[in-house]
Amino acid sequence: MKFYNRRIFDDLKAHLPKRQITVLTGMRRTGKTTLVRQLLSESGIKQQFYFDLERIDNRVLFAEQNYEHIVRAFQQQGADLSKPLLVAIDEIQLVPNLPSVLKYLYDNYPIKFIVTGSSSFYIKNLFSESLAGRKKIFEVYPLNFHELLAFNGLNAPNLALSEATQFVASTYQQLRPYYEEYIQYGGFPEVVLEPSVEGKKDLLQDILSAYINFDISALSDIRNPANLYKLIKLLSVRTGSRLDVSKLTSIAGISRPTVENYLYLLENSYLIRTIPVLTASPDREITKARKIYFLDNGIASAVGELSSGAKFENAVFNQLLHRGDVAYYQLKNGKEIDFIVNKEYALEVKETAVEADLKQVRDLAANLGINACYVVGRDPVKQFPAFIWGGYL
């Protein structure tokens, strides 16, 4: 099996020798299972078992009320529990009592667990409460642009923002087609590796259907999946905009509590992410409205007719996620900065950027005491100090 370079893998590998349970969580088909198999291949523990809980027989095994029956099942498959054992379990949210099972086995046997799950809500709440101190959580997202390049056999330097301002025309010409593909089709590994446009579109529809029919259904009793899909479509065309729950309720014809419940589920199952406004003076700035983004451009494009600018801004958001905490800044008069990263960097996003955009972001950032300001552009028609081509992020 061929393994590709993922940024998160070094952290996962470093945690592999530790006693704690290694937990990978993220949306379906972001590559969690492949990362698990890569970890298994690099572990020094010779006794290894892999269980996919989408298989009914594996769910029955781990649903055993007497946990020693699970131990005997391991032994019947050749496990020597007097020696270290590595056990990988996929999709743990499918067995409700699994946290108790893991706690018992962890406390009583020399087993190193690697587990995956598709629900932040389950992992961070129910799962965390019963395994306090016994696990470390790693979140797996669709590929960022640097990882997409690696999947295509190309290398991209990991640049600091100050270094990313150095524009090189030859590098831009080489990477531009891949960046445009990233903006349009996102970073799900299967989609990136699929060569045809129609194939990419079909895969994205399949991923979205599986997400609604399996991941969301496992978390909540969704009585009307059509309403959920309608809400997702409404959110996609509002990518990069402030979230107005009242307007969504009115347009969708869904009750406000249901809309709020859906939004909670969508964010905690890794489809969307909302970011807060950064405030310096709460009496002057908008303090409550959050902006919405999709955690994959391909999914956002698959469900809604996004503008070219919205697709680009959403791609930049996903690229900035690996750099730290992301917020935005806006005054009541409507002037805003698209992204503030770690309260240290201010970035304005423009498909075709001009130097006046830099002046505006600097003027606004002065309110926050931020000096590091940049303008991120899609089309480098004109370069100027602090201009960053999006593919360099």
TrEMBL record:
SUPFAM superfamilies: P-loop containing nucleoside triphosphate hydrolases (SSF52540). Residues 18-143 form the AAA+ ATPase domain. It comes from the Bacteria. This is ATPase.
